[in-house]
């Protein structure tokens, strides 16, 4: 029987010292964290939703998307979904084998004419290619945040120890932007935005089986909630993430207080794997204070195989060995309830979240137990 390896969030005093960071997050952590070459991954992600429903995602990768074993290949990805639901996705690449132009002590990343920069407390995002020019200024509404010491450690103390890092530079931002596309220029104000940064030294499918990642603005609240499940060799360990803020202040973010429930589990017609229509995060902050965050799926607007971004020969090889990584962006209703001594206020709003599934198993396995389909969907 194979030895089960440890997977944990780095949140001990020694972890902060190991990764060279203070307990209070700093903008310096948003600088480049890897060497950008083979055996690493790293990306800077931004998204914003404007008042008319237009949604824009811009991501800067050190590699060809998620190709951790591959060479450096800077890639800027631009995606826009207009109010009618029409999606446009384009990308720009630097020279293959050339490392990305990025600073180490601050976020200052550029690929051809495209960049993301931290300047005087705000972020500037620019994409220019394929007849599109997008300029956005992202002003923070919440302080920078990260879970623990910004890393998860897998196989700690073994020769195969690996780490995965995540830094949320802007949990909530007010965004103004100008977009020129199809010969038309639009000016947007009061968009709600988000920016985070991910990196690591191992292909994600080797350490993670799947995750649900969600964030939302609900009434006076901002929430980030994730249900991350490690891969088989780590016992399908559950690694929850929970951050709830109100009025510019973070109320709760200790994952040791988080309980997660799933419901409405069925097989998704596109991915062929399970999908949960309901996710409930229960945060027992103290004996008298409890926060409950619910995600109720009403549909999807982006369903794709991660293999579509790799060369055809790699897709054939991956499928032959049973790999089937999928990504589904979900839309629905997000609820937040704050209970104090059993009573409190409840709010609801429309939101977006994602299921990123790196494993090939059809049903969810959590803490080494297979989670069955819901009774009303098991047919």
Write the layout of secondary structure elements.
Blueprint: E1 7-9, H1 13-18, E2 41-49, E3 55-61, E4 75-81, E5 87-93, E6 101-102, E7 108-111, E8 114-119, E9 122-129, E10 132-140, E11 151-154, E12 162-181, E13 184-200, H2 204-207, E14 208-218, E15 221-230, E16 238-246, E17 249-252, E18 258-267, E19 274-284, E20 289-305, H3 312-320, E21 326-340, E22 343-357, E23 365-366, E24 369-370
Antiparallel strand pairs: 1-11, 2-3, 2-13, 3-4, 4-5, 6-7, 7-8, 8-9, 9-10, 10-12, 11-12, 12-13, 14-15, 14-22, 15-16, 16-17, 18-19, 19-20, 20-21, 21-22, 23-24
Query: Quick check: average pLDDT?
Result: 91
Overall shape: globular
Beta-strand content: over 45%
Largest sheet: 13 strands, antiparallel
Q: Which class of secondary structure composition applies to the elements?
A: mainly beta
Total count of strands = 24
Number of domains: 2
CATH topology descriptor of the largest domain: AttH-like fold
- From the 3D coordinates, which CATH architecture of the largest domain would you assign? Beta Barrel
- For CATH, the homologous superfamily of the largest domain is named as AttH-like domain
**Order of helix and strand elements from N to C terminus:** EHEEEEEEEEEEEEHEEEEEEEHEEEE
Rg value: 20 Å
Helical percent range? under 10%
Q: What's the CATH C level of the largest domain? A: Mainly Beta
How widely separated are the two ends? Answer: 34 Å
Poorly predicted ranges (pLDDT <50, ≥5 residues)? Answer: none
The tally of helices reads 3
